[in-house]
Design goal:
Strands 1, 2, 3, 4, 5, 6, 7, 8, 9, 10, 11 and 12 form a 12-stranded antiparallel β-sheet that branches. The chain is mainly β and 288 residues long. Helices cover 15% and strands 52% of the residues. It has helices spanning 3-15, 251-265, 272-285, and strands spanning 45-59, 66-68, 82-91, 94-103, 106-119, 123-140, 143-163, 167-184, 192-201, 203-207, 210-221, 228-242. The protein is elongated and about 70 Å long. The longest helix is centred in the C-terminal third of the chain and has 15 residues, at 251-265.
Length: 288
């Protein structure tokens, strides 16, 4: 066992007295997003991004903090060292995001769906729900020693504050419940944990659909059976393109004008709610 493994083994033993340094059966939370992908995917656009974690600090009661400076890779490596994200703006304030992230001894995946609740030119509030899945495996020279899945449904709010044309400050806070499902080499395991994951970022829109920026993510388990905290510093890079790139640059402004006219002329029409949602989205897309 190397030094970093030994350090985290002691920390894990403090968090899980019944486990010691035997099999690490961890109810993993959902993987984190790249900082630049904490922002909702705009309607009618598709986005791809990558995030890396150059520094990660683990803290459990009764043990010294364990610092993992090499891209967050360690024996547990919550959230993985890197992640690939892809998202699609479905329209009417809905968006969907998929995440894939490698761990030191496995991999993590997640699917999130977001729905806009409120939006102005500077502030947007969404609710986000999804489900994560983690695969963890321990191998020996003879093959697989043991392996298991951890499934983590999650729910929470997403807020973004737009500062001018360039800077956006998103926050995503999620509550999740993770449960371990044994697959091989371990039996009669019944381990679950609650997690609170709060991610924030400074997203810079540098032009032509390209965004980049740093982020800070805090992961805490309030479960008495699994006391754990992790602080991760990340960097993200994303690229967004419209699904209909041929649209003229002033299309959002023209659409907003027509939508305002409709609302003024037909304030009691059954379509007022939908037109108002289109207007809010077009105003948010018009450069300040």
């Amino acid at each position: 066992m190397n030094r970093s493994t030994s350090t985290l083994c002691v920390a894990l033993a403090a968090a899980l007295p019944t486990t010691g340094c035997g099999p690490w059966i961890v109810p993993f939370p959902q993987p984190m997003l790249a900082p630049t992908d904490l922002v909702a995917v705009p309607d009618g656009e598709v986005r791809a991004g990558v995030g890396v974690t150059p520094a990660s600090v683990y803290v459990v009661p009764g043990a010294a903090p364990a610092v993992l400076p090499v891209l967050g890779v360690g024996p547990l490596a919550y959230g993985g060292a890197a992640r690939l994200d892809a998202g699609l703006g479905l329209g009417a304030g809905w968006d969907i995001q998929a995440v894939a992230s490698p761990m030191a001894s496995g991999s993590q995946y997640d699917l999130r769906v977001g729905r806009q609740l409120f939006a102005t030119r500077r502030v947007r509030l969404d609710v986000v729900a999804g489900g994560g899945a983690s695969w963890f495996a321990s191998t020996t020279g003879e093959g697989l020693d043991y392996g298991y899945f951890a499934f983590a449904p999650h729910l929470g709010p997403r807020v973004a504050l737009r500062l001018g044309k360039v800077v956006e400050l998103p926050i995503l806070a999620e509550l999740s419940w993770s449960h371990v499902v044994p697959v091989y080499g371990i039996h009669d395991v019944d381990r679950s944990a609650w997690w609170v994951d709060v991610g924030s970022a400074a997203v810079f829109h540098v032009g032509h659909g390209l965004t980049l920026g740093p982020g800070l993510d805090v992961l805490v388990s309030p479960s008495a059976a699994f006391r754990w905290a992790n602080v991760r510093v990340s960097m993200g890079l994303s690229y967004t393109i419209p699904l209909h790139p041929g649209a003229p640059s002033g299309a959002h402004g023209d659409a907003a004008s027509l939508e305002r006219l409709f609302l003024e002329q037909y304030p009691t029409d059954p379509l007022v709610g939908q037109v108002q949602a289109w207007l809010d989205a077009d105003l948010a897309a018009v450069p300040l």
